[in-house]
Amino acid sequence: MPGGSSSQQSSGKGKKNGKSSLTQMLDDIENNPEGHEGFNLEIGDKNIKKNAPRGKQLHTQSQMFRYAYGQIEREKAMQEQNKNLTFSGVISMANDTEIRKRPTIEVAFKDLTLTLTTKHKHLLRCVTGKLSPGRVSAVMGPSGAGKTTFLSALTGKATGCTMTGMVLVNGKMEPIQSYRKIIGFVPQDDIVHGNLTVEENLWFSARCRLSAELPKPEKVLVVERVIESLGLQAVRDSMVGTVEKRGISGGQRKRVNVGLEMVMEPSLLILDEPTSGLDSSSSLLLLRALRREALEGVNICMVVHQPSYTLFRMFDDLILLAKGGLTAYHGSAKKVEEYFAGLGITVPERVNPPDYFIDILEGIAKPKSAVNYKQLPVRWMLHNGYPVPMDMLQNTDGLGASSGENSAHGASEVGSETGSSAGDFWQDLNSNVKSGKDKLQHNVLKSGDLSERRSPGVYQQYRYFLGRVGKQRLREARAQAVDYLILLLAGICLGTLAKVNDETFGVLGYTYTVIAVSLLCKIAALRSFSLDKLHYWRERSSGMSSLAYFLAKDTIDHFSTIVKPLVYLSMFYFFNNPRSTVLDNYTVLICLVYCVTGIAYALAIFFEPGPAQLWSVLLPVVLTLIATRTEKDGVVSYVSNLCYTKWALEAFVISNAKRYYGVWLITRCGSLMESGYDLGHWYRCLILLVLTGIVSRVAAFFILITVHRK
């Protein structure tokens, strides 16, 4: 219901710990409204809040949810009594309820121009206007008009482009990234964790992004408001689902995608096609929820495609973009028909106005007036007194528009043909360097925080991430079981095939072990970071801690680092029966798994899933061949000493060779000298494996915070 009050915050971690359902909770409230165990309907009253003993009334999950649901029911009752008032007005009039105010954000832009660095092509050009708090603005236009690019430019997410013009935040020349903690950006794709429930997704976003000073009961209230306003009560405990495993419907998933940003109480909410794929009723429900947010002073801007007339009337402002990123109209949505009528373009009867205007800009519909659709951006600039670039003035003359465009196009082609190949190479190189510099500044050199919101620290977010990742791994138990089963089979096969040779101290079996364990553990570790890159990029752009995310993933993977060597060794040791102790073999295997897991992290983050798997297979095989090569020249010997496979194999052989005494001493010394191993290097090999694991994790984290999708 109310997406409204600024007191929105993160909610809903575990309703299950209290009463099981919303219906039962509300029944308990109705049957026992004065009960001290939970919540009474007047708990929102200031006097009751002041007189209530702190820490006693709202300290359990059940009590917190009673409080949240009671507040929602109370607001519903107030709305019923004040039907002629807006939700915001009802709340402000209820002076017995404490209201927290959100900071407002006004975004003004002047002559905003975005040019591709490599191709010198305009994506946006001379866009001027303003997005005001408390208003819902719609961005419309034909395909290729730069609608999504416009949103990316406003939020500072456009990389690889040269941006000119001004973007003012609250009238000041400040980077908008400084307000990212109170800016919500809903991407076009539904980037939601499929192996979490609806409530768990919203609750995690709220806990990490709301103010750390906000009490937990208030966070619960915020999330409950969002769940109700988006109509997600029926599926709150349902898995969102993935491509392989069916979950909630596409429309519900879209609403969860929007809810992830609503629960953090944004002051500026940017949405990229939130109604695409939704039916008319779901779109209407979503837009009503957004209008409730606007009533609380939230600045909302959204890209929409082909809205119905009912939806169109719910927008306050309209931005119409023509092809080439030019503005054809920016103003009140109620006055757009009047403006175009002044140009001689009238909407036919029984035709949806936004559809007709987009057809005009696309060139599909031909207006009865003499105005050419290419002239509309220039007409808008002249109408508002904006400066018009010289190359666009020709479009004011309908007769010379096409010829001028063709001549300019031909001139550009001639110019491009005359350019030398060497010049093109250096131009592309320079553009790539600038693009890389932009990405580095965007990803690493973050601007200072001006949002005045103190979000949870790294340690607190680490705890939240730890709980989420642990829950996800438990729900992926089948994949984990398959990994363990494969390790068991590998231990049986390799232990049976590679019997211990007393003259080589089991080198063959240990060589197979290094390859098999490295390969299997790397492939499994790739899943930690390969599958949710999009989720990470979205969470990082909203201000969540990358360090907390990385450490939580690595901490959960330590369970596999400890268990997988045991699983493999339980079969390999039984069938191979080496002389070395189980503890020695287990110690080496733990260090080896820790090392290859760190390497897999770096591969998973740097490469796409396909190449990452290929590298994970090739590396252990190639490095083991180098490490076991008998004829070694200077270069090969030097490279061999840097291979983690050499350290692991040496540690295995040394631990086994130590158990040969008496008559085996001469054989042992000769075999070790031939392989280049030393009995005193066992601890050194283990330390090198652990250090490689640590260094590779540091490298993986550096890649994580610097490399971004193209």
Automatic annotation (TrEMBL):
Residues 1-12 have a biased composition (Low complexity). The keyword Transport applies. The chain crosses the membrane at residues 481-498, 504-526, 547-574, 586-607, 681-707. Residues 107-349 form the ABC transporter domain. It comes from Salix suchowensis. Keywords: ATP-binding, Membrane, Nucleotide-binding, Transmembrane, Transmembrane helix, Transport. This is ABC transporter domain-containing protein. Its main location: membrane. SUPFAM superfamilies: P-loop containing nucleoside triphosphate hydrolases. InterPro entries: AAA+_ATPase, ABC_transporter-like_ATP-bd, ABC_transporter-like_CS, ABCG_dom, ABCG_transporters, P-loop_NTPase. Residues 1-41, 397-419 are annotated as: Disordered. It is found in: Membrane. Pfam families: ABC2_membrane_7, ABC_tran. It is a multi-pass membrane protein. The keyword Nucleotide-binding applies.
